[in-house]
Description:
The chain is of the alpha+beta class. The protein has helices at residues 7-20, 80-105, 120-137, 167-183, 204-215, 217-220, 267-276, 279-293, 295-304, 321-332, 355-360, 362-376, 388-403; strands at 31-40, 43-53, 144-145, 149-150, 155-161, 191-195, 227-232, 261-266. α12 (362-376) crosses α13 (388-403). The longest helix has 26 residues, at 80-105. The radius of gyration is 25 Å and the shape is globular.
Amino acid sequence: MSKRFTSDFLERLMGHLDVCKDVCDDFGVNTILTPYTEEKNGRTQVVGFTVKSYKDQSKVGTFSSKGEMEFAPDSFFGSDDDWDLLDEQIRLQAAEEEEEDDEEEGDPLPEIVDKVPDNDDKIIDITKAWVSKMMSDMGVCPFTSGAEMAGLPMGQVFYTVERTTTIEEIYARYWEEVVRVNSNNEKELSTTLMIAPEFLIDNVEMFENFSQSLTQPLESLNVEDLLQLVFFHPEWTFRDGGERSGMGSAANYARRSPWPMINILRTTQVRAAQKGIPTGLVYQQNEKTLTKIGTNSLEKMLRLRDWGEIADLKVDRKDMEALRVAQDLQSTGEVAEVDTSVMYDSTPAANKVDREQIDGGNILNVVLQAMEKRLTGGENGGVTQLSGAETSAAMMASDFLLEYLDEL
């Protein structure tokens, strides 16, 4: 263990914990961590740390399970009356927004059925039904096949239910699942879906902050080459999704799940998928598919935990570019030549390039042509935007050129 606790590792760990304390209930309030440093080679290095906990009930804290605790004085709120007034204002605003949503949607939405079941098996069964219909049948995740198999290469999907409610506990369970993924063969365990039905289910903003505290340290902890994360929540909204009403709103249901979830993916599989299919193309096709179903129907099915309304609806993977390429890639392990060259397809899925293309300068021409159109292809020779396909082609060509820069 001491070999792993290098100065560099401890500095990255301290950086990660510094992010954690901003979203945790207890860490940074009742429990603090202080680095222990030494001067080495002319610089201050972290060589360890000290953990100190304050368990006195009179101390500041937020765990209700620890008893009644008092919050520290707040200069902006001098009394409990101020908090009560703010709370009432928030409730009134939420009620008004809910009424507006009901008026805009027309038919009132049903209440959520069995919001948090007591039985873990029931939660997993409902989650599998959602994965099978939304992720697989609707093609939201191109590399998912039913509820049990996913990935590149195809492997088992592992489901686990964690009923923790605090951020400290969910951190601990999350790292246990990371170890499980890393310790298993990818065909035996391709990806893990960690379901947390009682964790921030009514607070999507806090859940998003929590998700950032997991994704941001991936690079600093040197684990971004091992795993990638995708998050789901019943009220998830993409940052570019606009208002909940409108054409773009249905696309949010690509990430709206019955309960909060953390999807732990293998980086090698994510990168293989990205080489095969431009991410932007997947987003576009998801928005098109989900918009056809409609926001009201998607929300109603999510609340009822029943996708029978679209039981007979299933996208034809051969008719949708991203899904067709994904299917071929899963079955053969490589992308067909017709999908690797800009000569054949407006949305190339380049994971390999013929050496003759380098010598002939075709890849360089892709970049030059994209720049020329971007800078002079607009009205009166002005700038213009490239299409998603053109942008993907230019980016792939640029990545390839950078990789082989020494040979050019």
